[in-house]
């Protein structure tokens, strides 16, 4: 059988496909174990990033993939990257998106070249192929984990169902499901924690307005008759109190690559189609709903990344609860059920006579891209596993990390996307159909992810790193679970594995300072705002270096602030309210001084700011109606060493100001 792409690496007597999609099944392999410095389970984008990083650090690495698909969601249809703050994406992840730009524009890839975050699936697959080929990484496809051998708290060998075994001093679980982690006896959880578990506010059961039925839809087989039973996929259980924990997980779907090109593949009725499954949508349309029914975000080549949109769309809500712990065979059946549901939905939208002709014709104007997923009839080969197992380790990322309420000192990468959970169940509320579980709450700025959250408790496993199914609450994982972040954390995981091998230590004992220094040298971004050598930041949300007069109120209502929050004068007590930032200057010298605030039309346009430098006061006036969310220079000053308000400080005053005055942070950078 020919490969669709031609990267093949010969290792001993075995021929291994390197990132070929679709892949042939491997022949029977020799019983002797294959060894490497780093064995990675899962050829997701994270698995590829980990392997390439290890090779660039001079280590041998290989990937074991239970299926035939390489690249995870990044090659599986998610061509409109959920990136959050793009400037927070560094390292190998940033390089991947720069390679995307270069592929479309025929330009060179450099550390400062432009990045592109939308792409066709086959383009992403080609780039991953090239990265794997350049690094000479073997990928063992269709090789499923069947057992793990432990020596004390260390993995020594992975056994797979084709008789092959893999040995290494270090391992990475890069699967979306956390299978290696679980086999190694590492603690994990699945589902939603109660808000009380970690002091959160938006975890657990959440009956909200997002992707919600906003018209009355009868949930019963015979409308108006509870005795007729509920339509398929609707829970009969009463809705638990808001914030209650349960075992439910957010819905999965396929990210379709659609086109309106003449050679598109029309939506076909799948075998197993049952119209009753789409009855709620039919009733919703009859009640006046006109769409949207799915997204059509353009990614290039006249193609889309089409995702769930609305109360009844491509998410197969409530049909994935057992997926995280299911066998490979059962998972395959569940993937098939998701395919039948979603293909059936598209056929329904394009053909069902109960729908208006306008809906049917609009849907039928789209079809599957004929040149994507060519071995699978144009249908994506990767189900979107939005959430499965999550490790429970020494540091659990929570809502507090996302909102800036706490900051991990051992950051190994940044996340910045909205705390995002898709709906988890369909329920009946006061006789009407509702969805439950959707949460979409933004984060104020990029936040650091703790190294402790990607390594297990040492007593459980000392040579495993988990950059995908990391230690996080359900709602924090909703922000972290993005492909760029998985690649970022995988680079950090492989770097830590390299340092642990060098030191002969457990991954938990890798010195954080050494790890962070190596990561920064390789382009990884670890803190936000991005810092530079010789930089000192004094933030209003910390006590050190901040003094106040009058009354200042904390707020997070306007994005763009530094740290956990900002403060404002409530537009009162003018001339009384003052706030001073005093840095600890390490060495006498020339420093550029910056101030930060958040902007709004209600802000003051004439805020007086005094810069104290060596006993001299220079007053600037800043307009806080503009320039928010960035560092605004106040000038360059000579500042003496030490920590003295008269020698080096920034004072924000409020007298005669014409609106709210904001105090967020000051920054001092050695010139």
TrEMBL record:
PANTHER family: COB--COM HETERODISULFIDE REDUCTASE IRON-SULFUR SUBUNIT A, FERREDOXIN:COB-COM HETERODISULFIDE REDUCTASE SUBUNIT A
GO molecular function, one term: oxidoreductase activity
Domain of life assignment: Bacteria
Statement: the UniProt record of this protein carries the keyword Oxidoreductase: yes
Source species taxonomy: Bacteria, Bacillati, Actinomycetota, Actinomycetes, Micromonosporales
Name used for this protein in its record: Xanthan lyase
Natural source organism: Catellatospora methionotrophica
Annotated CDD domains: CBM6-CBM35-CBM36_like_2
Signal peptide bounds: 1-30
Entry keyword set: 4Fe-4S, Iron, Iron-sulfur, Lyase, Metal-binding, Oxidoreductase, Signal
Pfam families (alphabetical): FAD_oxidored, Golvesin_C
Transmembrane domains' residue ranges: none
Residue ranges of domain Golvesin/Xly CBD-like in the record: 536-669
UniProt xrefs under SUPFAM superfamilies: FAD/NAD(P)-binding domain
């Amino acid at each position: 059988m020919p490969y669709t792409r031609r990267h093949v690496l010969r290792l001993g007597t075995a021929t291994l496909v390197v990132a070929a999609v679709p892949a042939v099944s491997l022949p029977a392999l020799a019983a002797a174990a294959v060894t490497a410095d780093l064995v990675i389970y899962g050829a997701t984008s994270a698995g590829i990033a980990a392997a390439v990083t290890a090779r660039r650090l001079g280590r041998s690495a290989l990937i074991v993939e239970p299926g035939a698909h390489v690249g995870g969601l990044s090659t599986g249809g998610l061509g409109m990257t959920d990136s959050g703050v793009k400037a927070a994406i560094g390292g190998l992840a940033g390089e991947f998106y720069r390679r995307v730009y270069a592929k479309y524009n025929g330009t060179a890839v450099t550390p400062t070249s432009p990045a592109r975050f939308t792409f066709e699936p086959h383009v992403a697959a080609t780039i991953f192929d090239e990265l794997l080929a350049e690094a000479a990484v073997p990928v063992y496809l269709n090789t499923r984990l069947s057992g793990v051998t432990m020596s004390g708290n260390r993995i020594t060998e992975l056994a797979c169902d084709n008789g092959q075994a893999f040995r290494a001093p270090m391992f990475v679980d890069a699967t979306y499901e956390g299978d290696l982690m679980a086999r190694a006896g590492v603690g994990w959880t699945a589902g939603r924690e109660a808000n009380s578990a970690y002091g959160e506010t938006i975890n657990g059961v959440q009956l909200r307005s997002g992707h919600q039925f906003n018209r009355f839809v009868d949930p019963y087989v015979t409308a108006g008759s509870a005795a007729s039973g509920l339509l398929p996929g609707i829970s009969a259980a009463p809705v638990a109190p808001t914030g209650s924990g349960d075992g439910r997980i957010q819905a999965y779907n396929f990210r379709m690559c659609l086109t309106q090109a003449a050679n598109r593949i029309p939506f076909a009725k799948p075998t197993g189609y049952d119209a009753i499954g789409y009855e709620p949508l039919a009733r919703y349309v009859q009640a006046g709903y006109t769409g949207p029914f799915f997204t059509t975000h353009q990614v290039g080549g006249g193609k889309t990344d089409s995702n769930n949109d609305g109360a009844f769309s491509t998410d197969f809500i409530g049909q994935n609860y057992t997926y995280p712990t299911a066998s490979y065979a059962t998972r395959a059946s569940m993937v098939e059920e998701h395919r039948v549901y979603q293909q059936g939905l598209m056929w329904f939208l394009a053909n069902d006579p109960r729908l208006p002709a306008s809906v049917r014709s609009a849907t039928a104007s789209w079809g599957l891209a004929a040149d994507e997923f060519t071995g699978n009839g144009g249908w994506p080969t990767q189900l979107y596993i939005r959430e499965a197992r999550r490790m429970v380790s020494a540091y659990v990322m929570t809502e507090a990390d996302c909102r800036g309420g706490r900051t991990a000192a051992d950051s190994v990468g940044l996340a910045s996307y909205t705390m995002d959970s898709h709906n988890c169940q369909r329920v009946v509320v006061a006789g009407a159909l509702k969805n439950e579980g959707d949460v979409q709450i933004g984060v104020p700025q990029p936040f650091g992810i703790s190294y402790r959250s990607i390594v297990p408790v040492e007593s459980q496993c000392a040579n495993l790193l988990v950059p995908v199914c990391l230690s996080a609450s359900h709602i924090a994982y909703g922000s972290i679970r993005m492909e760029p972040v998985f690649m970022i954390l995988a680079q950090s995981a492989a770097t830590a594995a390299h340092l642990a091998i060098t030191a002969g230590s457990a991954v938990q004992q890798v010195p954080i300072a050494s790890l962070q220094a190596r990561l920064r040298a390789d382009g990884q971004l670890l803190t936000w705002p991005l810092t530079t050598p010789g930089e000192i930041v004094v933030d209003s949300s910390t006590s050190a270096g901040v003094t106040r007069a009058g009354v200042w109120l904390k707020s997070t209502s306007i994005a763009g602030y530094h740290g956990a929050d900002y403060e404002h004068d409530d537009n009162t007590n003018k001339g009384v309210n003052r706030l001073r930032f005093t840095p600890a200057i390490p060495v006498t010298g020339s420093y550029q001084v910056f101030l930060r605030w958040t902007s709004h039309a209600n802000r003051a346009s004439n805020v007086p700011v005094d810069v104290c430098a060596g006993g001299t006061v220079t007053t600037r006036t800043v307009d806080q109606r503009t320039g928010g969310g960035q560092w605004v220079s106040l000038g360059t000053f000579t500042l003496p060493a030490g920590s003295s308000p008269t020698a080096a400080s920034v004072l924000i005053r409020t007298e005669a100001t014409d609106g709210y005055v904001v105090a967020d942070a000051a920054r001092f950078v050695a010139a």
